[in-house]
Amino acid sequence: MKILLFFFNIFVRVFTCIIPFKPLRRKIRNNYIFTQTCPKGAKFYIVKNGKKKRSNFVKFGLSIQVYGSNNEIIIDESASFAKSELVIRGSNSVFSVGKDSSVNNAKFRLYGNDKKMSIGEDCMFSYDVEIWSGDGHAIFCGEDELPYNMEKDLIIGNHVWLGAFSRIIKGANIPDNSIVGMASIVNKNFSENNVILSGIPASVVKTNIRWEKAAPHEFRISESLHKEKALDCSSH
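and the corresponding structure tokens:
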């Protein structure tokens, strides 16, 4: 099957080269170039117009490995991935990504049984982000029979920007409209929206913020107005 997908993907790329309209060419490639078939142990769903549709083929730049059974992978058709990987170790867990979210070179580790890893809508991942719902090895306290580092759900809200090299760890909750600073480690639940989380471990360093995908230099405002807004933001 891998060989068939390889040659099919080449055919689609070659065929679309003769299409002069770039948007149409990109749309066809996004819909008909596949990363792999969905591995055993998981059901793969594509969400289109709010409805889930089962698929045997993964259409995104996402490689998937599954070690378990009865897991679900639910991804909106408008989400985009590049050079990213998902590893599921456990059973009855759910991995989901909302619409218009973009992921670049990220590693997802969904470990544990009956766990959830949820990425909201319109999220943006910078380079080399890692997200772990559990540890690779058990740690025991004294003579306890069960590990104290059990796996936990991990939730990322809507319109969240994860900076390069950031690490999101089990039990973390990142609220809507927030930012995680570069190389920060988020290891707990945050509830206030519109915040910047930064540091090791991450804490709230700024509140009442909003962010857009455009670069700062694309916003042209007078120098005096810029200083006024900067002072107002720093007071929060």
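(Above: one complete record from the training split.) The longest helix spans residues 2-16.
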